[in-house]
## 1
Amino acid sequence: MKRTPGFFITGTDTEVGKTLVSGALIVKLRETGINTVGFKPVVAGTYLDHNGQSLNEDLETLRIASKLPADQVNHLCPYILDQPAAPHLSAKAKGIHLESDVILKAFHEISRNFDAVIVEGAGGFLVPLNQDENLGDIAQSMNLPVILVVGMRLGCINHALLSCEALKTRNLPIAGWVANTLANAMPLLHENIQTLKERIAAPYLGLIPSLPKDLGKASDMPYSLDALQFAAQHINTP
Ligand SMILES: Nc1ncnc2c1ncn2[C@@H]1O[C@H](COP(=O)(O)OP(=O)(O)OP(=O)(O)O)[C@@H](O)[C@H]1O
Ligand SMILES: C[C@H](N)[C@H](N)CCCCCC(=O)O
Ligand SMILES: [Mg+2]
């Protein structure tokens, strides 16, 4: 396997399977001996576990995949906001100004201790960070090849092609794209994938099927390691 500094995982929208793909890639890279960790620039939305501790589902998934103990979850994200909303708005409601410098510092810190970092974006590619910056700027500063997760539902063709244009405008290399089946498979799934294959100038990394019932997750809970391993079997690493 080629050496990789990691990937920036973006998606056609929020709730399209970025966390599933990020966790699966961490599992895959770790299986080949690459000491890989997950990272999120910002998360919005927390739940209370049975001990009353405030947790975020994406960070828990990335932590479990990265084989880190519970008390190290804060290393995976500099901004943990409680309200599940657009991050700059959740932050503003709490009087917090999201700073790219803070995010990049946390990213460089964690990068020092691992061979590869899988960075999961928040929402789609151009989600705002503050009045002047967005997640696309963060991806550009991190200088990682990008993987686009396409949530296979009606409308995804347009969202995927818009995302590719935005990536191209920023000269960000697309290492590949993943088709992710959401809970309900869409009509003409394979024809939709073919349409995208003909239009996205980057390798197709595979189709993740709908998770089997016993591997499905409650909406605000993390993915299980079994679910990540299932997804990992269906995608290639670029
Ligand atoms: N292959 C799949 N099979 C069944 N359900 C899925 C699949 N992929 C994703 N889902 C469901 O869709 C929801 C969104 O997935 P996920 O959290 O991975 O998206 P996301 O892009 O990371 O969202 P966010 O923008 O909030 O980070 C989850 O609740 C998950 O259960
Ligand atoms: C809270 C949610 N799960 C995501 N983490 C954030 C999604 C932000 C979407 C903003 C938008 O594009 O309108
Ligand atoms: Mg996510």
## 2
Amino acid sequence: MSFTKELRQKANSIWTANHEHAFVQEIGSGTLDIEAFKYYMKQDYLYLIEYARVFALGVVKANDLNTMATFAAYLQSTLHEEMSLHRSYAQRLGITNEELEHTIAAPTTIAYSSYMISEAQKGSLAHLIAAILPCAWSYSEIGKRLATVPGALEHPQYGEWVRMYQDDEFEAIADWLCAKLDELAITLGEAERKQLEDIFLTSSRFEYLFWDMSYQQSHWE
Ligand SMILES: Cc1ncc(CN)c(N)n1
């Protein structure tokens, strides 16, 4: 079994909890409270700014031109495709650009994005990928699953979100990161593989906390 398949298996209970989280389920059914979605969109925008920085660090840490170019392409697509989804929702939901960029980051947003940046800065390229892989991969899995829910793709409010994350182009990012991490892991010893596993599991847990924050915190803001 490949290294990333092993990681996916070890994180299975966390990923199942993410799939079953009320926020995710209610995007699929179209019943999510719009205030929770607005809160999520604003926090996620801040998160994505830092996520994009990790791709920039990938350009710096890459040791061949193809890897550099791929990280640069994903930096570009995060800033101009994924974040344009948020800008388009913001416009539709009456959130100004000012509000989007100057929202105060919640503790979970700060903790998750600081964790990713810290692992990316202090570790190797493999550490960097382990920190961001759950972000790219779990969203693709969630998008693909929600796309099978009747009506989810066409829902007037949440359909655009589902269409973005179920897209094959989005899945290609996760596939590429998996292939790169599998390639790098071949030469690593047990101790370093264990570090990568811990990072992957921590980011997976942060994914859960992000859904939960968005579902809960919007009620007590
Ligand atoms: C918190 C979070 N994690 C992952 C993704 C997908 N890039 C996202 N938009 N937000």
